[in-house]
């Protein structure tokens, strides 16, 4: 563990200074979220099979960043990552249909079921929040177009992971985004990442406590911000939100606006 990397006692929810684990940090939403967490003053532990890529993305000398090389498909290795954590982010996933990622072990079952299940089961009951990103349509797998997207059971596995989390007794927040847009796509340049805001006029956010969105687009920028903001907002505990982007001003990084938005659904 990096020097000075310690858990911060919190009463109800995480605040800047807390220690959080991010699984899926090198993905699109994960890159955005990790950057925002570091900017906000969180102590971030990344767990990845590609530590060099993570170091290239987020730097090698940040005292608030710890990069661990572990296989999240191995339960014992996941357990070894959890010490001192106040929060956990599960952002792992894969493509809906077989691609070269599947040939590297990132199949639907492995990425959307095995890894999330390992993270949930290895997380101590003392955790302050477990945040998971899944997908719109997890409760509508028999409806078009989700029945097509679920051909290889990606949505079925994501829903199974949701149910395990909901039944685990851990305080959780789940986000089910519409089709993800905006970079980073394959960026490995952090400066480019920070400037890659292509939301245009779609800066607004629409949330629902039902799996009833899914016809629009959800900016990775917005989804990552929602994940970070929910940590310190009590109203988001034990909630599952559908999330999409809208043609409005939106809360951007304003904590009070996020609080008001989440409170309106509580």
Structural description of this entry:
The structure is a single chain. This protein is α/β, with parallel strands linked by helices and 266 residues long. It is built from 10 helices and 10 strands. It has an 8-stranded mixed β-sheet with strand order 3-2-1-4-5-6-10-8, with helices on both faces. Strands 7-9 form a two-stranded parallel sheet. The radius of gyration is 17 Å and the shape is globular. This is NAD(P)-binding domain-containing protein. InterPro entries: NAD(P)-bd_dom, NAD(P)-bd_dom_sf. Pfam families: NAD_binding_10.
Give the SSE map.
Blueprint: E1 19-23, H1 28-40, E2 43-48, H2 51-58, E3 65-69, H3 75-79, E4 87-90, H4 100-103, H5 108-122, E5 129-133, H6 146-149, H7 154-166, E6 172-177, E7 179-181, H8 190-195, E8 204-208, E9 217-219, H9 220-230, E10 239-246, H10 255-265
Parallel strand pairs: 1-2, 1-4, 2-3, 4-5, 5-6, 6-10, 7-9
Antiparallel strand pairs: 8-10
